[in-house]
Amino acid sequence: MANGTIAFDTLQTSGQISGTAKSVDTDYVVNGVPKVWISLNGTSFGIRDSFGISSADDDGSGDYGINFSSNFDTANYCVNQCASYDGGGGGAFGRYLSAPQGNILSSELEFIATYDYNQSQDCEWAMLQIVGDLA
């Protein structure tokens, strides 16, 4: 069996969706969805679930590194991050995003998700998603 190419500009439903939203431009689908997302367990470090991630590591209290399965075209991607702590009291901080040695890279990212602003306690949930163009 030979593999081929299907070219199209619009996806359209066969009628299961009501209203006017029955088609979508494929450019929107390709450019408008997260290419990478991850949900980490910060307290007993581990990946709960992910997409587009080849590996993750625990670099210290609330400091996590992730490596992308596929590089982004540039480091001009958009990152959304959140954190949660179920230990009661206080709140969780998704403090900042950075990269190794302060460089923004198209292949990996480091981020902080901590229970306290002093970065002394891991969060139970550390989550992020990234939207951008893959290489």
Series of H and E elements: EEHEEEEEEEE
Strands ordered across the widest β-sheet: 4-3-10-7
Alpha-carbon Rg, integer: 18 Å
Fraction in helix: under 10%
Structural class: mainly beta
Per DSSP E runs of 2 or more residues, the count of β-strands stands at: 10
Our estimate of the beta-strand percent is 35-45%
Uncertain parts: none
Give the number of domains.
1
Question: What's the average pLDDT?
Answer: 79
Molecular shape: elongated
Question: How is the biggest beta sheet arranged?
Answer: 4 strands, antiparallel
Query: End-to-end distance, in Å?
Result: 29 Å
Helical region count? 1
How would you describe this structure to a colleague?
The protein has 135 residues and is mainly beta. The chain has one domain. Helices cover 4% and strands 39% of the residues. The chain contains one helix and ten strands, in the order ββαββββββββ. The chain has a four-stranded antiparallel beta sheet, with no helix packed on it. Strands 5-6-9-8 form a four-stranded antiparallel beta sheet, with no helix packed on it. Strand 5 and strand 6 (63-68) form a beta hairpin. The longest helix has 6 residues, at 26-31. The chain is elongated and about 50 Å long. It starts with 9 loop residues before the first strand and ends with a strand.
